[in-house]
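seq as requested:
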Amino acid sequence: MSETPVPQDLRTFILMSVGSVPYLEAMLLLRREPEQPWDARRLARRLYIAEKKSEELLQALLEAGIVVPAAEADSAFCYRPHTPELAAMVDRLAAFYASHLVDVTHLIHATHERKAEKFANAFIWRKKPDA
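struct tokens:
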């Protein structure tokens, strides 16, 4: 089974904007029900994650301009990207992810692995060459 290349613009969006698979799943879940208010408890139950983690995801989505505070509910959010371009990119990502889940998740995980490796390498003591 060969991997399908992720289109470059989606690849860039994922690498720059999608911090984790739960972040992606939260974004796409809210996108599917844009008129429904989502609070941390509801999101946690749907994604099978801790409520604290879902609070962090909702805050990250708010900061990214993907969601807005829900008018009718405290501490709840609705899907409403700040720009039409952002909405279109999320729509394209949703369509691509639906048929290439493994490719997208591998890209997200590979990004995390590289970041973790760079962080770990920063603490490696290097032997100075003999002068």
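The helical segments are 8-17, 21-32, 40-47, 51-63, 84-99, 101-121.
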